[in-house]
Amino acid sequence: MSFLSKLSKMFNPFGGVIDYKEVVLFSFRQPQKLDKWRIVTDQEVGGFTTAAFKFNPSDQFAEFSGILSKKLPTNNERIKSSGYAGVFGKVDISDYDLNTFNRISIRVKSDKRTYSIALLKGNEKQTMYKSIFATTPNQWETVEVPLNDFFKVHKGVVEMDLTKMNPNGIDSIGFVQTDKEEGQFNLKVEYIKLVQSQLTSNSLDSRMISSTGRVIRPPSS
């Protein structure tokens, strides 16, 4: 196993023990440049949404923020809707068994909006795989999303094919804001990981698990 992988045990505040195998893809706990992260907005087709991804040195997190605008381009009549922003970082997960590392774990603090974790494949143009999440506003929480919980979006349209995503070929990961509510948005990110969570029976309050298996963990006390 890669030197990036490690095994640890974490106490579950709802009772029981969870065994974790994890791979840290990105950690923003240390000062770093984020210039290799790519910002994508509707400005590429003439829209007016703005976005940035910056490191906060005082509190040690990355911050995805901007202003969402649904204003349509004035010079592109083919565009019928607008209002999106995304940020993506390159990853190389080809060395990992994605049947073992079957979830993405993020530590985030958001506003009242919903966001999406998004995955890109280099060989699938104009396509992304998304999973929508929402957290308690202004609280740090850990969100775990199974890899088979992602749905396919091609040219901005959700595909109705319910086949589970094949994780092979993923080369970028990031966050997307497309909730269509105009105004400021702000998502703080502490880390992004690949994990395997083996939950013991009755180890989590059922209200913490969605029908697809997503787990949202409240802040540590």
Written description of the protein model:
With 221 residues, this protein is mainly β. It contains no helices and 15 strands. Strands 1, 2, 4, 5, 7, 10, 14 and 15 form an eight-stranded antiparallel sheet that branches. The chain has a seven-stranded antiparallel sheet with strand order 3-6-13-8-9-11-12, with no helix packed on it. A hairpin with a 4-residue loop joins strand 4 and strand 5. The chain is globular and about 50 Å long. The two termini are 33 Å apart. Mean pLDDT is 82; it is low at 1-19 and 199-213.
Distance between the termini: 33 Å
In terms of structural class, how would the helical and strand content be classed? Answer: mainly beta
Helix content: under 10%
Q: Helix tally? A: 0
pLDDT < 50 stretches? 1-19, 199-213
Give the strand tally. Answer: 15
The helix/strand series, from N terminus to C terminus, equals EEEEEEEEEEEEEEE
Features:
disordered N terminus; mainly beta; single chain; 221 residues
What would a concise description of this structure say?
With 221 residues, this protein is an all-beta fold. The protein has strands at residues 5-11, 17-27, 38-41, 50-56, 61-68, 85-90, 103-110, 115-121, 127-133, 141-146, 151-154, 157-158, 170-177, 183-198, 215-217.
Secondary structure topology:
Blueprint: E1 5-11, E2 17-27, E3 38-41, E4 50-56, E5 61-68, E6 85-90, E7 103-110, E8 115-121, E9 127-133, E10 141-146, E11 151-154, E12 157-158, E13 170-177, E14 183-198, E15 215-217
Antiparallel strand pairs: 1-2, 2-14, 3-6, 4-5, 5-14, 6-13, 7-10, 7-14, 8-9, 8-13, 9-11, 10-15, 11-12
